[in-house]
Automatic annotation (TrEMBL):
Record-given protein name: Helix-turn-helix domain-containing protein
Organism of provenance: Micromonospora rifamycinica
Pfam families, A to Z: HTH_31
UniProt-listed InterPro entries: Cro/C1-type_HTH, Lambda_DNA-bd_dom_sf, TPR-like_helical_dom_sf
GO molecular function, one term: DNA binding
Top-rank lineage group of the source organism: Bacteria
Length: 457
């Protein structure tokens, strides 16, 4: 059955292709490559998730793009742009393109399907952003003026940028995005660090950007760099007066300590974060995350009863009423909590309970959280192998590998290595293990570039 078009009786934007080559460079694709991109192009174009990519001239000759330009409908041009085969077999998500344009996903949807935009300032800004050739447009692009730039409130990154970066990070991993975030920090945070006349909100946004850079450094396998970013973020958050943000960053330090196996530091940072939020009963999800991180530190220390008590506190905090969150807060929901519960159970050796928890959420992870989905599956596989169910764990590992193709995450690769070590003792007892180990070894070779140190920020 054909798909209905958003344009009434018009055909869908995507024009199916029978080629098995890369949509970007034309190179031959592997048989199991379902992305429409070869590995080099997949890596080269990661920046498109936070900014429009450089596209060749032939991009604008694609049928649906030409139609939208002829109809003088920029909304339809945006939809044709998103669905262009140059981007691979899956269209660019509306949330990503909306972030470029400074819109919400709902606003972009209305622009794509509603009446043509007639505001020249919007048309000019969007055309320049996407680098649409001037000769193809139905309006004239004014010559850019040379003038001094005054840095003020409007120079502070807005919520759309932060959301676009977070969304991209969940889908492609921190390694691909670290340089982009650091470039934004170079532009926005220096004035704050110098104690300039920026508004307090600027300190909060700069703190959020530093925290984001810390998570990306952690995801890239650079814990010292991550720690530095988190501590810079904490100082900026304290200057902003945003206690909730300061508590959240304490949680990031706790997570990093847990990942490094430092139970005392993990517990200390989580407790410090909870103390910061002691009088803030509106920060429900942030408190829940801190209780969960406290539990992880307690599990690392082998304090079972206290760990379970902290997890119960996390569950109560998550369901408590809380006010709307500012744009610099990271999401923490029921699925996030359940993954932390599973981590605690695995650390405490309760494999059966961990499998039950992960089985219940493995297919309920929100769309777009590629890294979280892959990590949840790898945790489930590790628990199954520990139970002696290597034959059932193998397809779960294969799914995690397929989900994380092209993902720039050293954390995910580390979990794969741990699973590979667990599988080695089952080589002779399970026929599915040897080919899986071969595939894992090939994956480690392909992702060896993740071991390259990040540049110092």
């Amino acid at each position: 059955m054909g798909r209905s078009s958003a344009y009434g009786g018009e055909p869908p934007v995507s024009e199916p292709s029978t080629t098995t080559g890369c949509a970007r460079c034309g190179g031959r694709l592997a048989r199991d490559n379902h992305t429409g991109r070869c590995a080099p192009c997949h890596t080269a174009e990661r920046g498109r998730l936070v900014a429009p990519p450089e596209v060749p001239g032939r991009f604008w000759e694609h049928g649906p793009v030409r139609r939208a330009l002829t109809e003088r409908h920029f909304g339809r041009l945006l939809r044709a742009y998103r669905h262009h085969p140059y981007h691979g077999r899956q269209p660019l998500p509306q949330t990503i393109v909306a972030g470029w344009l400074g819109l919400t996903q709902a606003q972009l949807s209305r622009v794509e399907t509603g009446a043509p935009v007639v505001h020249l300032d919007r048309l000019v800004r969007w055309a320049r952003l996407l680098q649409v050739p001037a000769a193809q447009l139905w309006f004239r692009l004014p010559q850019p003026r040379t003038e001094s730039v005054v840095i003020g409130d409007d120079a502070v990154p807005d919520s759309h940028l932060l959301q676009a970066l977070r969304s991209a990070d969940r889908q492609i991993g921190g390694r691909h995005l670290y340089a982009t975030v650091v470039a934004h920090l170079d532009r926005f945070s220096q004035r704050a660090l110098e104690g300039g006349s920026w508004p307090r909100r600027a300190f909060a946004v700069a703190a959020s950007m530093h925290e984001m850079a810390g998570w990306m450094a952690h995801d890239s396998g650079s814990p010292r760099l991550a720690d530095r970013h988190f501590r810079d973020a904490l100082g900026l958050a304290e200057r902003s007066g945003e206690t909730g943000l300061a508590g959240q960053i304490r949680g990031s330090l706790s997570h990093l300590a847990s990942h490094q196996g430092e139970a005392v530091a993990a517990i200390s940072h989580a407790v410090s974060g909870l103390n910061v939020l002691a009088d803030d009963r509106t920060a429900g999800s942030t408190r829940a995350r801190l209780f969960a991180l406290h539990a992880r530190g307690l599990a690392l220390a082998g304090r079972t009863d206290e760990c379970h008590a902290a997890l119960q506190q996390a569950e109560r905090a998550l369901t408590a009423p809380h006010a709307p969150r500012a744009e610099w807060f990271s999401p923490f929901d029921a699925n996030s909590l359940q993954v932390d519960v599973a981590r605690c159970l695995l650390r405490l050796g309760d494999l059966t309970a961990a499998v039950d928890v992960l089985d219940g959420i493995i297919d309920e992870q929100p769309v777009g959280r590629v890294r979280s989905q892959a990590l949840a599956r790898l945790l489930l596989a590790a628990a199954m192998i520990g139970q002696g169910r290597a034959d059932e764990a193998c397809p779960v590992v294969h799914q995690a590998m397929e989900q994380s193709t092209g993902l720039g995450s050293a954390v995910v690769v580390d979990h794969m290595r741990q699973v590979a070590l667990l599988l080695r003792s089952h080589v002779r007892r399970c026929a599915e293990v040897p080919p899986l180990l071969d595939r894992l070894q090939q994956t480690f070779q392909e992702r060896n570039w993740l071991a390259t140190p990040l540049p110092n920020a």
